[in-house]
Amino acid sequence: MYFLYxxxxxxxxxxxxxxxxxxxxxxxxxxxxNSNIHHEGIDNKKEPxxxxxxxxxxxxxxxxxxxxxxxxxGFRKIGSGxxxxxxxxxxxxxxxxxxxxxxxxxxxxxPIEVKNIKFAKHTSDTGVYDNEGxxxxxxxxxxxxxxxxxxxGNALTSQELDEMLEANREPNDNKGxxxxxxEWKILYLLCKDKHGLLRKEIVRGVYDGSxxxxxxxxxxxxxxx
Length: 225
Fold this sequence. Notes:
mainly alpha
């Protein structure tokens, strides 16, 4: 009976979030029609860092701010199911919004500012992005040199992925561990090949921001078939 109640509550919450998504997206679309909209999340003075490029796919309207409904839309575009997309939109925006808005009060819309995404870098990670959001090639190669034993450094199995996460875990860092675990498990779920391997080139595409665009194109092509 407890399981049934829990299941009903989760379904209700998912439906509520999905409904709110539709309401807010309509409001936001109306606001976007205003030519005087202020793009506070964009810094046009410099080339985006690899970390900024990593998240820019989810900035659906290109204003430099990622709202939960945009995160949801982004996950749907790359082929994620409704429930995973709802979970990701809540988990990501709730977790990152405050960190990317230094000096500002909390917002119930949980916006993420792309230009400040470097402030949302969590602990217990791979170190492939440095503190400024730049790509560190040595750290990327280290992932596969250390942990990709089955495929001679070209891909990670599920077990090797777990070993990498455990190796990167810092003491008493539950938040960082959960963030890293969620990121990599979702990536593995969406991008593993038929042999259960997460290929090196796929992971490289995540870090440089190119993978999501390719996944969206592939998903769109499958829908047309």
